[in-house]
Specification:
Distance between the termini: 47 Å
Radius of gyration: 20 Å
Largest sheet: 8 strands, parallel, barrel
Number of strands: 9
Strand content: 5-15%
Helix content: 40-55%
Length: 342
């Protein structure tokens, strides 16, 4: 979709939602067990420090099953609700819900809004077997009529000024129902759509099929592309092939926390938004000094992140080799400090 057509379509959106997409948006993806509140805090702070804040991030999914969830569940997943639903860097956090019962999803969405959620996102993309076996996430891509029921029920239940969005994949086992999925989204009242450009069966295996997003640009709502964006070059290719300028960054943003600032930077200006390893070490230490159930959890989560950083920074590998069996948090912090001088 070219920019003129996109602006024309946005005219039917409420003004406050239209303004969100006046410029290309850059979002931090919801990733279960990865972009938790602590990781969101660190990554949004880095992005803000580099001069290209995320427009917003989306929480890990909150599972809706049999009843209205109590407030403490929402606060556990999204403690940012205690601070105007924003990270300490000021990045808004949208609440993502996952479930298959339209009325329950609507009730929980309405309650989340009462607690301060600035927007509700609905998960139709999670490929996890445990989620799919309980009729949640991407398995519903084979039931577009249920997708419609859920989105429309949520849209009716939450205040009109609060956006409702959906995140999908291209299909479950294949893309044979893509037209039905697009039709369900179109009729549902969703305010925008994020598409991970692979099916559930394709998982996270390269490549992502960005060109398959093109047909969704026929919708009268903004479309956000996601999947297999690890570098600025891939981001540019994704935008070209998908026909949308809006991007959600996932694992690439964890591996290279400066990716969001690199996406729209020309080669000759890249140094201004590049995060050197020496500058990243302070954020790693801040992560280990963050809030968690206990130090064991913090160390485990940090090692998960460091393992991913080895794909983005050559300096991460020797640090990983030196601390992979270390359990003492303070010893790991000292090793991080030492790595900044090497």
């Amino acid at each position: 979709m070219n920019n003129d057509n996109q602006q024309t379509l946005l005219l039917i959106q409420p003004n406050h939602i239209q303004k969100l997409f006046n410029n290309p948006v850059r979002l931090l993806a919801p990733m279960e067990g990865l972009t938790d509140p602590l990781m969101r805090q660190i990554l949004t702070q880095i992005a803000t420090d580099l001069g290209r804040p995320y427009d917003w991030s989306v929480s890990e999914f909150i599972r809706v099953t049999q009843h209205l969830l109590p407030a403490h569940v929402f606060y556990r997943y999204v403690p940012e609700l205690h601070q105007d639903a924003k990270t300490t860097a000021g990045t808004p956090i949208h609440i993502q819900l996952l479930g298959s019962e339209a009325n329950l999803m609507a009730e929980n969405a309405a309650f989340a809004c009462e607690l301060g959620a600035p927007a509700i996102d609905i998960n139709f993309g999670c490929p996890a077997k445990t989620v799919n076996s309980h009729r949640g996430g991407s398995v519903l891509l084979d039931e577009p009529e249920v997708m419609y029921d859920i989105i429309s029920a949520v849209r009716k239940a939450v205040p009109a000024d609060i956006p409702v969005s959906a995140k999908i994949r291209l299909g479950y086992t294949d893309t044979s129902r893509i037209d039905d999925i697009r039709g369900a989204i179109d009729a549902s009242g969703a305010n925008w759509l994020t598409i991970h450009a692979r099916t559930k069966t394709q998982g996270y295996k390269p490549p992502a099929y960005w060109d398959k997003i093109q047909s969704f640009n026929e919708l009268s709502i903004p479309v956000i592309a996601n999947g297999e964006i690890w570098t600025s070059a891939q981001a540019q290719n994704c935008m070209t092939q998908s026909g949308t300028n809006h991007l959600m960054l996932g694992r690439g943003a964890v591996t290279r926390p400066d990716l969001v600032a690199q996406v729209d930077v020309k080669e000759d200006n890249a140094d201004h938004t590049h995060l050197a390893w020496q500058d990243l070490t302070s954020h790693q230490i801040a992560f280990l000094q963050g809030q968690a159930k206990n130090d064991v959890v913090l160390v485990g989560r940090y090692k998960q992140w460091l393992g991913m950083l080895t794909k983005g920074y050559s300096e991460a590998q020797p640090l990983w080799n030196s601390i992979k069996r270390e359990k003492n948090k303070n010893a790991i912090i000292e090793a991080i400090k030492q790595s900044s001088y090497q």
